[in-house]
Amino acid sequence: MNLKLAPFALCLYVLCACSTPKNITYFQDLNNPDKQSITQQNNQFVPRICVGDLLTITVSALDPAAVAPFNLPVVSYPKQTEQMFNGTKEIGTSQAMQTYTVDSEGNINFPVVGKLKLADKTKQEAVDLLENKISELVKDPIVNIQIINFKVTVLGEVLKPGTYPVNSDRVTVLDALGLASDLTIHGNRTNVKVIRDNNGKQEVVTFDLTKSDFFSSPYFYLQQNDIVYVEPNDKRKTQARYSQTDQVDLSVITAITSSISVIASVIVSIIAVNK
Description:
The chain has 275 residues and is of the alpha+beta class. The chain has 3 domains: 2-19 and 241-274; 33-46 and 150-237, Outer membrane lipoprotein wza fold like (Roll), CATH 3.10.560; 54-147, wza like fold, CATH 3.30.1950.10. Helix content is 29%, strand content 28%. It contains 7 helices and 14 strands. It has helices spanning 2-17, 36-39, 64-67, 123-134, 173-179, 234-239, 244-274; strands spanning 54-60, 75-82, 89-96, 100-101, 107-110, 114-117, 142-147, 151-156, 162-165, 171-172, 187-198, 201-207, 221-222, 227-232. The relative contact order is 0.16.
């Protein structure tokens, strides 16, 4: 009787060993009615201009000539391109807008207006400041400001760690992890850190991605130059069964188990026949 149960016991053991690891699923409490309101909160985070930011600022109006002194000239720089004919190379040119760098004191030097402090202001606050200054000289100016060096860095147990430029001013922790192609199976989803430089002071906040509470965190939206770090989980490494590397081992174990099961079944049949 014990020999007959042996193949089934062995298969049951393998299936249990290959069960899905816990703490892999994100937002496990979203089905909880008490948690539904968290995902519906309207986070009003707006990024602020920081020291070291590179800004493009354009001014327009009904009279383009009137605002020309407030716009930096477009610059040309050499760009080497290869010609497909005769194997020759040609030097071309590209045009780009000049940028303003927010200095260590949080200022920029704007044409005509002079020095302006923009650090710690939102883009809209900076636009309002410039429009008020320029409107003293030009009727109904329109100012547009873009932060062109907005980037976040994702490190640790993700598939593609690195620094990623961001076109939008509103990027979340989940967006950053998406840029890095998500966590690996070995990433600790209960201990994801956001590291932020706040006026020279390092701030570290920890998120648990298996819960939805972090949606309401003021750190859910990232600022430029934030770092997202995914801590490795050594215990999870040994238990993971579905990573690309471990799938090979699992296939070998499954093949061996199947062979043992067949051999055990043959032995049981032979014993039954001899009886």
